[in-house]
Amino acid sequence: MTGVQARVETALARLLPAADALPPRLHAAMRYAVLDGGKRVRPLLAFAAGGLAGAAEARVEVAACAVEMIHAYSLVHDDLPCMDDDVLRRGKPTVHVEYDEATALLVGDALQSLAFQLLTEHPLNDDAARQLGMARLLALASGSRGMAGGQAIDLASVGKTLSLPELESMHIHKTGALIRAAVLLGARCGAPLADEDNLDHYAKCVGLAFQVVDDVLDYEAPTATLGKTAGKDAAAGKPTYVSLLGLARARELAEELRSEAHLALQPFGARAARLAELADFIVLRKF
Ligand code: GRG
Question: Quick one: which of 148, 169, 171 has its CA closest to 71?
């Protein structure tokens, strides 16, 4: 994990515009938002899935950075006063606090554009149609029928009681869609996989497990460990797995999803060891 995280950090630093390139304030803020922070879970998943599909690491690296840029943009916008209004992210002041709101808005916009620029200007697959499909996959995962749609449902759910299927649908869109895209984009840098449906099922399980665990950590972990304000969801009157199911059942659900993710990897045998380890990391993490 440490090796991939370091590699992704170097690649992100290379692929982002230099901090002194015109306009320097925007570029410095983009680098502030993306570099030196975060667990890099989505790039780790992309590399593990790319390894399974025999993809060239130089290709996976670009796809992984594109997904991480979309993720970083979503965090910058999510922290804005018009959304979650937070002051701490990845252990640092949020972008609108360190810079200003207009810059934070532009950072998100520009990171999103850069992600698609990367996916279309670098050779990621020898089959051009397959590469076009990768850009479409990321667009669907991050747009109104994916992450942005999930965020809209999230904002509309404040102070409401959601049923479990409603909560699940919100998170499948808000968090799960981009995690699924990370897995599939990594794999699609390589040769077509006979059992891609199984990989997709794995990705859906870990995407949902990620959010269940996020809710558990938001409830029980201190702010210093999380690097973001703890207990915010409950304070904002947002429905969570913990508020709906209770702590014990939420933990059990995360475990069930981890088992289901492992089961989905069975056809791939030992080649999927890294993906299995990442399912463990996502469920057992403490931050
Ligand atoms: C603004 C369009 C738009 C979308 C925002 C993902 C999201 C949608 C908002 C983030 C809010 C949030 C805290 C969701 C919980 C799950 C989540 C995505 C946590 C942050 O991801 P990590 O833990 O963060 O991978 P790091 O910092 O490690 O990269």
Answer: 148
Q: If you take atom 18 of ligand 1, which residue's CA is the nearest one?
A: 175
Residue of 37, 19, 17 whose CA lies nearest to 99: 19
| DSSP string covering 56-98 | -HHHHHHHHHHHHHHHHHHHHHHTSTTTT--SEETTEE-HHHH
pLDDT at 161: 86
- Per-residue pLDDT at 29: 98
* Ligand 1 site, residue 75, Cβ cutoff 6 A: yes
DSSP of 121-140: HS---SSHHHHHHHHHHHHH
Give 57 Cα–ligand 1 centroid separation in angstroms.
25
**Could you state, in order of their start, the residue ranges of all structural domains in the chain?**
3-284
How far does residue 175's CA lie from ligand 1's centre (Å)? 7
**Torsion angle, alpha carbons of 231, 236, 237, 238, to 10:** -80
39 Cα nearest atom in ligand 1: 28
- Distance (Å) from CA 98 to ligand 1 centroid: 19
Q: Give the chain's residues under pLDDT 70.
A: 223-224, 226, 230
Question: Using only C-alpha atoms, what is the Rg of the chain?
Answer: 18
Which atom of ligand 1 is found nearest the CA of 89?
27
The per-residue pLDDT for 139 is 98
Assess whether the C-beta atom of 171 lies below 6 angstroms from ligand 1: no
Q: Check: CB of residue 232 under 8 Å from CB of residue 218.
A: yes
Distance between Cα 53 and ligand 1 center (Å)? 27
Query: What superfamily does domain 3-284 belong to in CATH?
Result: Farnesyl Diphosphate Synthase (1.10.600.10)
Burial (Cβ within 10 Å: 0-12, 13-18, ≥19) of residue 121:
exposed
pTM of the full structure: 0.95
Nearest CA to ligand 1 atom 2: 148
